[in-house]
Amino acid sequence: MLRLTPVVRNLIMINVLVFVGSFLAGKLTPLVDVSGCTFSGPVDVITAYLSLYNTHAGCFRPYQLFTYMFMHGGISHIFFNMLTLAFMGPILESYWGVKRFTIFYLITGVGAGLFNIFVDLVFHVGGFGTMVGASGAIYGLLTAFGMLFPNMEIQLLIPPIPIKAKYLVLLLGGLSFMMDPSGNTAHFAHLGGVVFGFFIITAWRKQGN
After folding, report:
1. In the CATH hierarchy, which top-level class contains the domain 6-206?
2. CB–CB of 59/137 below 8 Å?
3. What is the pTM of this model?
4. Which end of the chain, N or C, is less packed with Cβ atoms under 10 Å?
5. What PANTHER family does UniProt report for this protein, alphabetically (predicted)?
6. Are strands 42-43 and 130-131 parallel, antiparallel or unpaired?
């Protein structure tokens, strides 16, 4: 049975509440037409204001680099992100403590958004109109877990077998990578989470922490 630590529990609750709120807003309130700055047309008011827009779009606001990581594009999107967070997060939070875990999660999440925007602006290969999801931060956690506990054995529920962390990281990372239902997966945001996670862990190791 998963034992959720305080920050992980709060992150999951916030993500679920925002997801439910967005669903209800889409059913109960008028849709907002944001076709002038995205490729998606009318959306609910929560998605309209909390999603991350590209910087050359008229709807981009700096605060979206933070809020986008609490939005999700569908059931499978939020399920696999939160499942990975529930598996990896408590171990990392217990290892680092509340403050360092929170800092790492937020930096990799914001960094993933910045990385995706940077790649799109410089190399013109990102091609996104809006971006949502905690995947960047989740990939940061996967990177950290793989670097810190590569040979730790974790007992799975289904199937009920032990598996080393480095293999579980590859498995969950692959599922997270493939199961985005939007059809427009922000692969460079995933890569950004890995890059920021790697450099943060490397820097902390050099500091002796």
Report:
1. mainly alpha
2. no
3. 0.85
4. N
5. PEPTIDASE S54 RHOMBOID DOMAIN-CONTAINING PROTEIN (PTHR43066:SF11), RHOMBOID-RELATED PROTEIN (PTHR43066)
6. unpaired
